[in-house]
Amino acid sequence: MNRAVYEDRPPGSVVPTSAAEASRAMAGDTSLSENYAFAGMYHVFDQHVDEAVPRVRFANDDRHRLACCSLDGSISLCQLVPAPPTVLRVLRGHTRGVSDFAWSLSNDILVSTSLDATMRIWASEDGRCIREIPDPDSAELLCCTFQPVNNNLTVVGNAKHNVHVMNISTGKKVKGGSSKLTGRVLALSFDAPGRLLWAGDDRGSVFSFLFDMATGKLTKAKRLVVHEGSPVTSISARSWVSREARDPSLLINACLNKLLLYRVVDNEGTLQLKRSFPIEQSSHPVRSIFCPLMSFRQGACVVTGSEDMCVHFFDVERAAKAAVNKLQGHSAPVLDVSFNCDESLLASSDASGMVIVWRREQK
């Protein structure tokens, strides 16, 4: 977010983005409970059944393109409209399970990480593998994220406790773009401007890094021990949450049977616990997200998977009874959740390989 532009806005202006009116129109003036009332299942994808699907993601600013990766070693690209929803193509090449993947900003490429110690770059249009890049440490790769401003750079985390900034055009590690954590790196997230990176490990720590936009160099800034020995399995950053909560925030899953919301208190990524919400998570790599349009509503909603086989919605601004909705339909722990751009569809994936697409109730 451009701070100068934000502060130049007239008093009473609540939305610091140029897409404000369109997004506010999509959000509507309905209550939070109405907005997150889902009418039921829109579609069930079972092409990866029997192996966990650790990650499911809608394409950026897209309503109907969805991808998911599986521990069976493949990635599926799916199209939800026109009906019936279809699997467009399956990306194969990794020799072991795919742990994570990310869409580029323009959705033309995907990057994936695998337990086979490689990352792969894929063309989404035809599914071909553009490049295979071995991990610099020959270690299992466990997570990845694009640098939000420069999609030529991708950050990966591995099982030898290292974070590496990789140039996907050259296939090389960026000089000065590596750092060691206390454990296996399970989660990564940039802030929106791409200047701060957070990384979480399986020992319960979250590290913040300053990211040099010109060189890709990482500088370790802060460390927070969420809970000693509790793996941090998901980190989501949000520059501002809602009209009521202007602070930058971080949403964290750790194996604590709680979803944790932190306030980012300075430019070095220092975190201060704001709220926690009860979920079941003691051993699985469960993930959560901020809802994309919630900045334009009263209240602010987050969604998380859970080991109780449900998808949970919480209003982070509600003092009591924060639970807004719960979706039941999975028969295994829910590992990941993803909204499309207008929140009309929500996808969730589970430990048995099932992906459910839920449709929001139409008013």
Automatic annotation (TrEMBL):
It holds the Pfam family WD40. GO terms for cellular component: nucleus. WD repeats lie at residues 91-132, 327-363. It comes from the Eukaryota. The gene is WDR13. Keywords: Methylation, Nucleus, Phosphoprotein, Repeat, WD repeat. Residues 1-10 have a biased composition (Basic and acidic residues). This is WD repeat-containing protein 13. It is found in: Nucleus. One of its GO terms (molecular function) is promoter-specific chromatin binding. InterPro entries: WD40/YVTN_repeat-like_dom_sf, WD40_repeat_dom_sf, WD40_rpt, WD_repeat-ST_regulator. Residues 1-20 are annotated as: Disordered.
